[in-house]
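Q: Could you write out the predicted structure for this multi-component system? I'm mainly interested in how the pieces pack against one another.
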Amino acid sequence: MKMRSVVSINNLSKVYKNDFRALKNVDLDIHKDEIFALLGPNGAGKTTLISIICGLVNLSEGNVHVEGYDIIKNYREARSKIGLVPQELSLETFENVFNNVSYTRGLYGKAPNPKHIEKTLKELSLWDKKDSKINDLSGGMKRRVLIAKALSHEPSILFLDEPSAGVDVELRKEMWQVIENLRDTGVTIILTTHYIEEAEAIADRVGVINNGEMIVVDEKESLINSMGKKTLTIELHDPITELPTNLSNLDLKIINNGKSLNYSYDRKSKHTGITSLLQSIREAGLKLKDLKTEQSSLENIFVELVSKDNS
Amino acid sequence: MNYYAVRAIYLHEMHRMWRTIFQSIMSPVISTSLYFIVFGSVIGAMIPQVDGVSYGSFIVPGLLMLTLLTQSVSNSAFGIFFPKYSGSIYEVLAAPISSFEIIVGFVGASATKSLIVGVIILVTASFFVELSIQYPLLMIFLLVLTCLTFSLFGFLIGLLSNNFEQLQVVPLIIITPLVFLGGSLYTIEMLPDFWQKVSYFNPVVYLINGMRYSFYGVSDINIWISVISLVSFLVICIFGVAIVITKGYNIKS
């Protein structure tokens, strides 16, 4: 089934005044109601990409449509669909939480609606802080205020630029819950992150960007399945210092001070080689203590993709 | 027209004024009142009439202009510079709002603040010196026009400034000396010939004399020249701000 695209990016390039080419002919479609994670190392072009979509940075080439509206020609319609949570905690520090959030709603052309602001603040556990000055809030609360501001005008698309930057583990998980709840209410989420764990935990699809180029865009699961390798860890009863001769031509690594062996294999391949490996181990006279298999994480895939792209 | 956005910016800025009432209202009123007391009542009592009015009354339009100009510029410059400095400008740039609407919101609020200060100063002045306004409509027109024009000028300074020092340079190093040397405390006829000619290159001379004309019907300069120069400066500021904000200079890469 063809998914409806809510953000459509075509041949997008950005060259800054210092001739730095931050984005190179990027094409990308974001589907309705998905959580899309844009992964990439620092300086890869993630923030530039979402800043262009949100109107903070001018594009050099290409075009972007949000819900069918061109972000330049129909900027009012396009921007009114978008909520943005920036990476930096950029807030007016002397204003209180309620006024801060209401201000953003006004900027987006919506009539004041204290009930909606109240609902948003309650959902983000900020209601009891509504009269507090931004200055008096913790970093995590400021991050939530930014989310509340971005949701103040009831957008259908929410951009989160590095939502977990500088956030502790507990709050990060709380934030993931908030993001998933939002998706359930019909908000499409696009987040940039360099925490693979974040993409792995909540994203439906993943795009990997490096040096301004989109190197892969795929469903998270199929990316892991198609590119991920499995690892078999064989724990030995007695440690070894070198591989027995009948095992030396296999793709085996001695780890854990000789107490374990690692064997990588492609689980989709017809012959994984596990049966003959176990046979050879028995022939070599090694005693097994334990066996375990592990699917390679998105992190391994990401590192592999980026290093391949860099080389 | 994104009416709610203009309203949001305007009210947000006005709210900032009430939050900082000592700095935004009390401080300019107190400092200008000190001028009225020292120059108007105390020293003024020893100075003969100037252009047919007492010295205390003579300096009111000039001091009013001094406050309006500096307040309009600094209100507006700070109003746009602060969100730039704190980074919260991102939400104005990302919102579905045109450059014109941004300007109306920020500049409108800044001009309103200056007007409030101007009215309070006039009322305060009436306690210390004898005040008469011959052309009240002209006075209101000049008051509003000055507040708008210099708020726009301040907005331009705020957009172009990259730090607090740059923000202060124009009001302190340019506007204040121009106002002091623009005949706010004297008539330029009192100056030697050469300095009179030099004074005509000071744009503020035209503004102060226009305001003085609306009060007492006397001026060193024809009132129309004053109005035309103020309107011309307004047009220059409109173009300046429009170009800078449309190109996104200093706020958008």
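A: Regarding packing and overall arrangement: The longest helix of chain B spans residues 55-86.
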